[in-house]
Amino acid sequence: MINYSFNIRLFFLLSFIVFASFKLDKEKITIFSIGDSTMADYNIERLSTEFEGDNYPLRGWMMMMPQFFNDHVTIHNSAASGRSSKSFRTQGFWKKVIEKIKPGDYVFIQFGHNDAKIDSLRYTEPRTSFRQNIINYVNEAKTKGAFPVLFTSVVRRNFDSNGSLVDTHGEYVTVIRDLAREMQIPLVDLNKKSAELVQKLGPEESKKLYLWIEPGLFKKLPEGKKDDTHFSIFGATKIAQLATQSFQELGLPVGKYLK
Q: Between the N and C ends of the chain, which has fewer C-beta atoms within 10 Å?
């Protein structure tokens, strides 16, 4: 005799499993990123209008990140030009981010470039105020149930007369590495990876990574531009690619959403 009651229960059980699996497969996550101009988004139309030319090539590396992820990932890039670990909070940028974070989200953190600027709004001392600022960002993200990931600052194109890359970030990078180990937070060492890339390309070829603009391309830059800190489209894409490689090398769950 057919046990209809058992079959109905089995049907609903299997339906639930299928539904749960489908829901898990369709799970969406959000990545928030906080940091400075090397990471930031830029309004390309505004830049091109400002400099009076087509497609001004300035890009932050996190701006290029969406192309590497599938549509299960939403990215809110809140990195802002000129901000340090101090001013990002005091000027209200962090408040806007922390209010939106939900359990299961990721928070990518990259500071250091502007923390060395000697002005009262931005300067932090590496081993004291900078260290504490990063600890605070990590702990506050964790309190919201998010997964913080630390990033060391990308290198500047700064070669000596022998063609060797010279470090410009000092202890700000060391502090991030130490904190990642002490707090058991994933570390994407973009300083190391970008240094290897820039050194491999050498003094001349590495210009393609940065905002080196030929004279005459933009009306407001008749003599061109030589910027060894900020990235071109090509450079920002390469740095974003290095970051995604680290996600896979570290075995971060966010890596499963890469294309």
A: N
**Number of C-beta neighbours around residue 211 at 10 A:** 21
Give the model confidence (pLDDT) of 182-239 as tens digits. Answer: 999 999 999 999 999 999 999 999 999 999 999 999 999 999 999 999 999 999 999 9
pLDDT band (50, 70, 90) for residue 27: confident
> Mean pLDDT throughout 35-53?
94
Tokens of 212: 């080196």
